[in-house]
Write a structure and sequence with these properties.
The chain has about 220 residues and is mainly alpha-helical. The protein has a domain of about 55 residues: Glutaredoxin (3-Layer(aba) Sandwich). It has 9 helices and 2 strands; from the N terminus they run αββαααααααα. A two-stranded antiparallel ribbon has the order 1-2. A hairpin with a 2-residue loop joins strand 1 and strand 2. Helix 1 crosses helix 7. The relative contact order is 0.16.
């Protein structure tokens, strides 16, 4: 449901660090958002700060072997995903009637029916307000699609025929790229990008390769 949670889990997988997942911890989120981790009593919120915590505490450099220029490119790719494409995906998932129905069935199924419609309406209002304040919500649908496609075209060109974003082995930005592309191509949600996946074949193949290597019988880092 959250590319930032998926990003954090993939960082832990790449780092081969054991962890337990708590699906009931949202109420304790220090910034009111997921993800956050608790590591030996220390709580760290936000996927980027979690990454830096992992690197500092466990002596892991996710970008080992990259030049300073390559590190800069990897960081820019992450920010394109997190600060640009994210908002467009957010709108398609939370404000599209069909997709929101599927989201609500996953997130709100345990809420008693008399209360559920009101809660769903509040959530959608908050999403719409956030999108308008950020700016993405002010664009018309065609403009959003142009921006989203430009992002994917750029990422597809950057990946090229390499196995990972920056070359022969995964770097920190690969956790982010995987998380967002898994969201883009998620079959449960219908978006213009998921319907147009054939135009970004290398990104779709990348998601499947990362899934095989780290999630489906590859490196098993989860405790």
């Amino acid at each position: 449901m959250s590319p930032f949670v998926s990003k954090t889990e993939m960082l832990l997988k790449i780092a081969a660090l054991p962890y337990d997942t708590n699906l009931r911890g949202f109420a304790k989120a220090p910034k009111g958002k997921l993800p956050y981790i608790e590591d030996d009593g220390t709580v760290i919120a936000d996927s980027t700060f979690i990454r830096w915590h992992i690197e500092k505490k466990y002596g892991i450099d996710f970008d080992a072997g990259l030049t300073e220029q390559e590190r800069g490119i990897a960081w820019c790719a992450e920010k394109l995903l997190e600060d640009n494409l994210y908002w467009i995906l957010l709108e398609w998932r939370w404000l599209n009637a069909v997709n929101f129905g599927r989201t609500a069935d996953l997130l709100f199924k345990k809420i008693p029916w008399p209360a559920r419609p009101a809660i769903e309406a509040v959530v959608q209002h908050k999403m719409r307000k956030a999108l308008h304040a950020q700016g993405t919500g002010r664009h018309n649908p065609d403009e959003k699609l142009v921006l989203a496609k430009k992002s994917l075209e750029s990422l597809s060109a950057l990946l090229g025929n390499k196995p990972y974003l920056m070359g022969a082995k995964p770097c920190g930005a690969d956790a982010t790229l995987f998380a967002f592309m898994a969201g883009v191509f998620c079959p449960q949600f219908d978006t213009p990008l998921s319907r147009d996946a054939a135009h970004y074949a290398n990104l779709a193949h990348y998601v499947e390769r990362m899934r095989r290597e780290y999630l489906d019988g590859g490196l098993q880092a989860a405790a």
